[in-house]
């Protein structure tokens, strides 16, 4: 039993003890995988997209999103090669609302983390892009092959 007289310290200690201590990594609450020395992390919902970009986006990360609404954001943390960029585009397309509803070729844009911005007027999970973005078209057949592998 520990006696703490200062109310502020008591509250801080209580909050610390209340939390369960786990060995979970920050990215385990998102979709994620590791490949070629990089960490690829993606949102699962509007709120997780918001959390991912607000709290874990670094300026050197590469950010992926479909050209239409209803897509997860995916980040590549590390130095990706072309194959990894293509794979992350494929995964972004696969988990998008557009793929679930229309089952067609999907355009995925990707930019550097320092090009992403957020205004107060933007709703949760919505972000803007400064400057030029790269576009990759992910073919329907590629997504279907990927779906059969997972």
Determine the mean pLDDT: 88
Biggest sheet strand order reads 1-2-4-3-5-8
CA-CA gap between termini: 51 Å
**Element order, helices and strands?**
HEEHEEHHEEEEH
Give me the number of helical elements.
Answer: 5
Structural class assignment: alpha+beta
Radius of gyration: 19 Å
Helix amount: 25-40%
Low-confidence stretches: none
Shape: elongated
Largest sheet: 6 strands, antiparallel
How large is the share of residues in beta strands?
15-25%
Number of strands: 8
Written overview of the protein:
The chain is α+β, with helices and mostly antiparallel strands and 150 residues long. The chain is 35% helix and 23% strand. The chain has helices spanning 7-18, 46-56, 82-94, 97-102, 140-149; strands at residues 31-35, 38-42, 62-66, 74-77, 106-112, 116-117, 128-129, 134-138. The strands form two sheets. The chain has a six-stranded antiparallel beta sheet with strand order 1-2-4-3-5-8. The relative contact order is 0.15.
Descriptors:
150 residues, 5 helices, six-stranded antiparallel sheet, alpha+beta
Secondary structure: elements and pairs:
Elements: H1 7-18, E1 31-35, E2 38-42, H2 46-56, E3 62-66, E4 74-77, H3 82-94, H4 97-102, E5 106-112, E6 116-117, E7 128-129, E8 134-138, H5 140-149
Antiparallel strand pairs: 1-2, 2-4, 3-4, 3-5, 5-8, 6-7
